[in-house]
């Protein structure tokens, strides 16, 4: 079964261009092996990451466990995971966009506040917001 997962997190220290290049190189090699595709967003201003991963559920679950333990980031918060019929990032073992370049209108209403402290109404909003950001970006690569 194909699944799509989106999470957000915060880098534990500032990520240099070299750090990001190294991370992406590793991600792309391993994702290509696992037939995992997706996109990574990072803001050097707020240190936030947001990542969409798509692939066979067993691969995504396993990869997510590894990612969750990675000490380069913290506060890993899975916003949603659901079954998909087709991929949005078919051609990308891991696309990358600096989050600071993403149009502010698109990010408006998106929040990475700790999920436990958010009322359900805002959480719902956040999930659909995250989905629409990712869908828009997939058409823009
Ligand atoms: C924000 C972030 C996103 C990551 N995304 C991926 C990814 O898409 N694919 C991947 O293989 N590793 C990703 N990693 C790296 C993994 O945590 C891990 O270092 C890598 O999979 C190598 O694991 P291994 O040596 O145990 O196989 C990411 C790490 C961070 C901090």
Which second-level CATH architecture applies? Answer: 2-Layer Sandwich
In the CATH hierarchy, the third-tier topology is known as: Alpha-Beta Plaits
**SS-based class:** alpha+beta
Distance between the termini: 25 Å
* Biggest beta sheet summary: 5 strands, mixed
Number of helices: 4
Q: What hetero molecules are bound to the protein chains?
A: flavin mononucleotide
Order of H and E elements: EHEEHEEHH
Low-confidence stretches: none
Average pLDDT across residues? 89
- How many structural domains? 1
**What is the count of β-strands?**
5
Tell me the helix content. 25-40%
CATH class, named Alpha Beta
Shape: globular
- Strands side by side in the biggest sheet: 4-1-3-2-5
Q: How many whole angstroms does the radius of gyration measure?
A: 14 Å
The amount of beta strand, in percent, is 25-35%
Summarize this structure as a short list of keywords or feature phrases.
5 strands; alpha+beta; binds flavin mononucleotide
Structure write-up:
The protein contains 4 helices and 5 strands. β2 and β3 (48-56) form a beta hairpin. A 5-stranded mixed sheet has the order 4-1-3-2-5, with helices on both faces. The chain is globular. By secondary structure, the chain is α+β, with helices and mostly antiparallel strands. The protein has helices at 17-34, 57-69, 104-107, 120-138, and strands at residues 2-11, 37-42, 48-56, 73-83, 95-98. It has a single domain (2-138), classed as Alpha-Beta Plaits, CATH 3.30.70. The model has no long low-confidence stretch (mean pLDDT 89). Helices cover 38% and strands 28% of the residues. Residues 9, 23, 26-27, 30-31, 40, 49, 51, 53, 63, 66-67, 70, 72-73, 94 line the site of flavin mononucleotide.
């Amino acid at each position: 079964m194909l699944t799509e997962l989106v999470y957000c997190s915060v880098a534990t220290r500032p990520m240099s261009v070299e750090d990001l290049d190294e991370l992406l190189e590793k991600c792309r090699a391993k994702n290509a092996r696992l037939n995992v595709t997706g996109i990574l967003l990072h803001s050097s201003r707020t240190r936030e990451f947001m990542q969409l991963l798509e692939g066979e559920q067993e691969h995504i679950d396993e990869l997510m466990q590894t990612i969750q333990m990675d000490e380069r980031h913290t506060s890993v918060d899975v916003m949603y995971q659901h079954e998909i019929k087709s991929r949005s990032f078919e051609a990308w073992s891991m696309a990358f966009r600096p989050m600071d370049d993403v149009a502010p209108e698109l990010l408006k209403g998106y929040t990475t506040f700790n999920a436990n402290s958010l009322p359900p109404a805002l959480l719902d909003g956040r999930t659909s917001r995250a989905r629409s950001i990712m869908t828009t970006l997939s058409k823009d690569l």
